[in-house]
Structure prediction request, 233 residues.
Amino acid sequence: MMIDLSGGEQHIRCVGSFQDLVATPFSGEINAICWARELTGDFSEIVSKVTQSGNITEIEPAELLGLQLSEEGALARDMLLQDMALLKVHGALPVLNVINYYDRDDAYPFFPTDVYSFHVDRSPIPTDTFLCTYYGAASDILPNAQGEKKVLIPEIRAQLRKLYHGAEEGFESFLSDNFFDLHYQAKPEARPINLGVGNLWRLAVDHPESKVPPCLHRAPKERPGESRLLLIC
Prediction:
């Protein structure tokens, strides 16, 4: 599924191979790289034949190999195994999930910190986030200029201060420890970009050596009665 960049998004670069996906550096405004692909095979068959347990089910390669599949289902399985192998050789730890829904954060109703909110990933060491949706609703990303860090919005910051009862110098640590500082609010004119089905993405992460802003992204609201098949690491 090709990505619509008619809006002139300057923070995305499209590449034509896995090698280019992992070798192309993030620079300037570019903090999202896409290997745009058209899928072959029946990924819905994989979803239907996996034994699901709970709202998120991880599928191991051995389980994939054990599924009895049609010719189209086998093509889908081959692509999944190939993507997982490529990422492992690169040094990543891919996880393949069937997702019915993610848990919602209702601890602070005015400030949910679940993955349905625009957020960035953070790591103490250099790393990237890879993800690909093979079936179901796909994630969104947002240009950094179109998002605002929630903890800097005065009315939200005031609410957070009411939750905090420590010394003033510890407030920023409180925000970080509870992941509040990772979340963003889309501006009124924002235009989220859907990552599409089949495309393998590499997103910039907030880490000490990063030379670009981390990529703002969120999980989609699932379609009724439809699970997602997602590879992420």
Q: What stands out?
A: Residues 71-90 form the longest helix (20 residues). The longest strand covers residues 128-135. Residues 13 and 33 are 5 Å apart (CA to CA).
